UniProtKB/TrEMBL annotation:
Record's protein name: Protein kinase domain-containing protein
Superkingdom of origin organism: Eukaryota
SMART domains for this protein: S_TKc
Single GO cellular component term: cytoplasm
GO MF term (any one): protein serine/threonine kinase activity
Family annotation (InterPro entries): Kinase-like_dom_sf, Prot_kinase_dom
PROSITE patterns, per database record: PROTEIN_KINASE_DOM
Positions of the Protein kinase domain: 112-423
PANTHER family associated with the record: AURORA KINASE, MAP/MICROTUBULE AFFINITY-REGULATING KINASE
Species this protein is from: Alexandrium monilatum
Length: 494
């Protein structure tokens, strides 16, 4: 039974002659991580958990808002109270990131270097403060501890040596089919720190004793986005004004990560944490790169949490990992805006009516039907601004060929240029978004021609689809206002 659970939940079996790890079983309560479920599965829990059941009928369906149980513990936070030891560069999406990307060779070298530099765990050096979260994917736990050397509070992730193994090569041999790869997480984090990537926390040390390996990282004081968004006002203009600067940071962080050649593939509210900043807006950091890849095109690799997975990840065809990340960011922005998820799963084999409605009739139709209690009984489209709806329609497009991208350097074609998310008016709510929009307009004008008219990806309406008929093609989700020269060109007329 334990072996079957490990294969089903963790995606890897127990090696022959290996160590069988036992853990407690129980009903899905307010903290599913404590009963052997991965963190992402807490959104699938029933009453008493994070999400409640969804009721359908009467031309719309009601979905209870996203809310943490009062019994749930604090979220994992991995950023230093004193700030990162790495000098932060200017966090501007208009500023070009370092040209040197992260390739397989440098990543492998970093992982091997970390394995060779593992130090000895000194239990007397650290004082336990509190348990932050169980880590069932790594058969361990995550604690907040205080380092007696300098008094700094840090996050310590504890994993059994039987799981992480002595080196990346040994882990690959033992857990060949595992979706979670702890050495990959550490290697990417080390490479990002070396490149002064401003959107990642700092890897402080890797230590080990006879039974466990301890990964020490810096601590964040404001928790993750899942906890942060539950304390904000009800969906509406005030809430959008608060979340827009944070959303712009998330988009910029993922864009920069892609320009370095890495796709995250597990973006979610839980994997974006917030550090304190001198300004009014907290500093965004990305965590948990254990499912990341340096290969842009992937196949038969289902990664991430069900609500965040792009539809093409469930097919047999190759998919663009950069565009699946863009889809996941769209779900993050949606959840920040309305404190809920648009669907439970994007898998066609599921019975999720939200997914079916969005795929057949478009996201606007879904937003016009979907209601939540925290929206005052109104449909979601009634409490969302027009610009935010247009942004979400582009990011959550089911056809990857028509989906908005994040303005990566590799998206240089004329047709791709007009699908940049930074052309959205909604992102102008933040200074970061305004700078990025200005830089993107200049780049588009350079590639596609000059004009006095500013390009935009926002639109009020979406092509109408007859009720009851699935879309045979995937039209552009938001009309694009093109410059005059392109309008007169034969290419645009076609």
């Amino acid at each position: 039974e334990v072996q079957g659970l490990q294969q089903g939940v963790f995606g890897c079996g127990v090696p022959q002659g290996g160590m069988v790890l036992s853990f407690g079983f129980g009903l899905c309560g307010p903290f599913p991580g404590l009963c052997g479920l991965p963190d992402g599965h807490r959104q699938q829990t029933s009453a008493g958990g994070v999400f409640h059941t969804t009721n359908y009928g009467g031309g719309h369906y009601d979905d209870d808002e996203l809310a943490l149980s009062s019994q749930a513990g604090p979220e994992v936070i991995l950023i230093s109270e004193r700030g990162s030891g790495v000098e932060a560069q200017e966090a501007s999406p208009g500023k070009a990131p370092p040209t040197q990307g992260i390739d397989d060779a440098s990543l492998k070298a970093s992982m091997n270097e970390l394995a060779s530099r593992v130090g000895r765990w000194d239990a007397g050096r650290f004082t336990f403060v509190e348990r932050l979260q169980a880590s069932p994917q790594n058969f361990g736990c995550i604690d907040k501890m205080e380092d007696s050397r300098d008094g700094r509070r840090v996050v310590v992730k504890r994993m059994p040596n039987a799981w992480i193994r002595a080196s990346p090569a040994e882990f690959e041999r033992t857990y060949e089919k595992a979706s979670e790869r702890p050495w990959l997480d550490l290697g990417i984090l080390m490479e990002l720190n070396r490149r002064r990537y401003p959107w990642a926390c700092e890897l402080l040390d890797v230590l080990r004793d006879r039974e466990h390996t301890y990964v020490m990282t810096t601590l964040a004081m404001q928790g993750d986005l899942f906890s942060w968004c539950t304390s904000k006002p009800a969906p509406g203009a005030q809430r959008e004004g608060i979340i827009a600067p944070v959303a712009a940071q998330v988009l910029s962080a993922v864009r920069w990560l892609h320009n370095l050649g890495v796709a995250h593939r597990d973006l979610s509210l839980e994997n974006v944490v917030l550090a304190e900043d001198n300004g009014s807006t907290p500093q965004v950091k990305l965590i948990d790169f254990a499912m990341a890849t340096t290969s842009r095109m992937c196949r038969r690799q289902l990664r991430g949490k069900p609500s965040y997975q792009a539809p093409e990840m469930h097919t047999e065809a190759d998919y663009d990992a950069f565009l699946t990340d863009a889809f996941a960011v769209g779900v993050v922005v949606y959840a920040l805006a309305v404190q809920g998820y648009p669907w439970d799963s994007t898998d066609r084999r599921s019975r999720c009516q939200g997914r079916r409605c969005a795929e057949e009739f478009g996201l606007r139709k879904l937003l016009a039907l979907k209601r939540q209690k925290n929206c005052g009984g109104k449909c979601i489209i009634e409490v969302m601004s027009r610009d935010l709806v247009s942004l979400l329609v582009g990011l959550l497009e089911f056809d990857p060929g028509q989906r908005f991208h994040l303005g990566e350097d590799c998206m240089q074609g004329k047709e791709q240029a007009w699908r940049s998310v930074w052309l959205s008016n909604w992102l102008q709510e933040s200074e970061l978004g305004r700078e990025a929009r200005k830089a993107e307009i200049e780049a588009v004008s350079t590639r596609c021609g000059d004009s006095d008219e500013q390009p935009s990806v926002d639109s009020e309406a979406e092509p109408k689809v007859p009720r009851g008929k699935a879309r045979q093609s995937f039209p552009v989700p938001a009309c694009v206002t093109k410059v005059s020269k392109l309008r007169r060109s034969r290419h645009c007329k076609a």
